[in-house]
Amino acid sequence: MTNTSQVVTCKGAVCWKVGEAVKIEEIQIDPPKANEVRLKMLYSSICHTDISTIQGSAGFKFYPLALGHGGVGVVETVGDEVKNLKEGDMVIPTYIGECQECENCISGKSNLCLTYPMRLCGLMLDNTSRMSCRGQRLYHPFSCATWSEYTVIDVNYLVKVDPSMNPTHASFISCGFSTGYGAAWKEAKVESGSSVAVFGLGAVGLGAISGAKMLGATKIIGIDTNEMKREKGEAFGMTHFINPSNSDKSPSELVKELSDGMGVDYSFECSGVGPLLTESVEATKVNFERINFWWVKNHIRPTHHS
Ligand SMILES: [Zn+2]
Ligand SMILES: [Zn+2]
């Protein structure tokens, strides 16, 4: 049974202004339009982009903002023209759609769909929003907001998941985990027998470890200053753990010590800590790409015109 006329009032996290503390507010969620569904959120995850959004460094300029872009929910109401989803289906939001027909979708080289692109204007595809608070329209990061009890999303930005999947785990797939997993699988295309270093063992890093393991990497070195990540990394397939705060040596030197002084075949920087980008490249074996990076770093200087 569908009920497309009711507005739902529920709790949601709202950022009213850049840099201001997030407030839990009573918000209104409109019914879905024709190609949308309204979800009852089960779990939401936190991504660093959410923090950057609150701090104003993520590039969003629209406030008040309903936050969150990762999570898992159950379809509560379906729009009139929705065919492949029904009430009760468990789904995860994705902020890039996939039409399977546009130039990018069929290229095999990119998933940046041109028909259902990443939304950065804080609104739905028809440039309106389904969320409001105290009579004010709420914007949302990407294609929807997930830090609320209910949300509305276009069906082209949803993936149906097996309901037997643990929803607390499914929540990480919409952004963090799949970012790392896809980096190892679709971007780096890690080969069987490879050695891999992963800097930062949050959801992105654990995804990279998992992807590398799936592809047959035999040495997977995880690097994190949080000792509790040792056990987590091992559960996902990490073979060696480095806690750089236990040593005076740089993380890249420590990785080299674990790889016959040579460095690893592949390195993934998953922490977002600036200086670690250089460390992650320094941790790799010397090869053509590495030399390119070294050359760019040492020869390209900003040009000043007077
Ligand atoms: Zn994210
Ligand atoms: Zn497409």
Automatic annotation (TrEMBL):
Alcohol dehydrogenase-like N-terminal domain location: 34-162
Keywords: Metal-binding, Zinc
Record-linked Gene3D superfamilies: Medium-chain alcohol dehydrogenases, catalytic domain, NAD(P)-binding Rossmann-like Domain
A Pfam family recorded for this sequence: ADH_zinc_N
Cofactor(s) required, per the database record: Zn(2+)
Domain of life the protein comes from: Eukaryota
Domain Alcohol dehydrogenase-like C-terminal: 203-285
InterPro entries for this protein: ADH-like_C, ADH-like_N, GroES-like_sf, NAD(P)-bd_dom_sf
UniProt xrefs under PANTHER family: ALCOHOL DEHYDROGENASE, ALCOHOL DEHYDROGENASE-RELATED
Complexes and interactors: Homodimer.
Protein name in UniProt: Uncharacterized protein
